[in-house]
Amino acid sequence: MKIAFVFLLCLLSLNCYATCIIIAITKDGIYVAADGRRNLHQYNSQGILTTLPQTVCKIHNVGKDYFVVAGVDDSQLAREITHELDTKRSWDDITNSFQLQMKLHYNKLFIDDRKDFKKILLESKGKLAEVAFFCYFGNQPSVRKITISGKLNSIGQLIISSKLVEPKGQIILIGIYGNLLFKTPPSYFAHVNQNDIPALIEAMVNYEAKFHPNDIAGPVDVLLLTQNGSHWIKKNNNIVSY
Prior knowledge:
Number of strands: 14
Shape: globular
Strand content: 35-45%
CATH architecture: 4-Layer Sandwich
Order of helices and strands: HEEEEEEEHHHEEEEEHEE
Radius of gyration: 18 Å
Distance between the termini: 35 Å
Number of domains: 1
Largest sheet: 5 strands, antiparallel
């Protein structure tokens, strides 16, 4: 892979919300690198909101179908996708049903706690979730990315929208909080072999973590998916299930 691979990433904005996931489509297969930090927000016995960092794997699968999630209530995102994939319906039916169910779920969260949800909308700049499905159809790699957004209308009602795209580029970024736009390729990647895609995308996740140390952290899991199956290049087994 040529060094243009790095230039391409560095000219894209990277949205992160306690997540940095990079998907690279190459002739060898689909490479995925994901950070391992998850922040669990919960109230303690004194009613004070606390943050509990957890180590998780953000790369999930149901059989040969893989997905990654980022966003508000990521555990519900993962459960809903797992349920939809278990139905073994067409991809269109799965993605349409998932979008509908998550819109209903986020509306319920808003109704249950308007104050906290308004704060989430402000901090995430309206983005509630990003997910990506990836697999092989025959000998062709396929990636579908869904972005779910929300905004308040003039009378304070929550309006939720979703967008499904099939990215055509080599690099797909998943995450919903903040905005980092590189103007020039960072020297941080100078030591990385540009032909070593797993090392390169892992380095990109670690570089992003430097800017969001409370939200993004290792260990970084790296997966290769080909038409013949999957292979964990790096996998942390000491993780929390969610």
